Known about the structure:
Layout: H1 5-57, E1 61-64, H2 68-77, E2 79-85, E3 88-102, E4 108-121, H3 128-139, E5 149-155, E6 160-165, H4 170-174, E7 179-184, E8 187-202, E9 206-218, H5 226-238, H6 240-245
Antiparallel strand pairs: 1-9, 2-3, 3-9, 4-6, 4-8, 5-6, 7-8
Amino acid sequence: LPLCPQKKYDQLMEETKELTKTIQDRRDLKQQFKHRTDKLTQDLEDDKRSYGDQLANEKVKHISLFHFPVARKILELKKHQVDLGGECSITVEARPVHLMLPKLVEVKQTTTVSSQRILVSNLPRMETDTLLDKLEIHFSKSKNGGGEVADCEYLSDSETVVLTFAENNIAKRVVQNEFHDLNLQKKKHTVRVTPFINGKISNLKSKMTQCPRAVMLTGIPDIMERETLQDLLEIHFQKNTNVFTDEAQ
Length: 249
């Protein structure tokens, strides 16, 4: 039997409440994941700073040189006596700097059209959470070609939204209609829907490569202010006469 108007209204209200609760639950999970990601990122930055402080305490200095023959000669001589003025001098040891670099010739890049994601563009400027809620509700309805929405992410750099469906092939159905009309900011607004392209780099191999224009100096004693000592070291190694007349110890 057909439902009376009041029952239809009550049913619609109940479905709306359930949908709103589901969206909020997903937002909470997304926020928790963001907090965990931010914490891990902060921990990584703290580790980097700690490592940098450790290098500073050990008085390890890196000096970038702009001419490859000069850097090579410094490494060949290995140990260098640096005049600090007066009768004071120190002996430092030069070591090569190695970097982990990709072997680009072995990189294969592939792109595929996502079966679960769509890209929504031509969006109005409005409060982000409200915009995402409106998009999730619109694209979760079957009459709009959509289905259950698993995630909705706003990309601030391009001012677009990546919307992810819970099931495959819904995205393919949605993009058949390129333009969708939504009620946004109390008026009708047309957004554009296009396929989302997945990019993946496979078979990426890396190798340790010696940096041709940098050396690492070790064995630097703590005898003066760091900035002053850094300046004296740079002056010493920027003079070609010092590089080519020094003798290995």
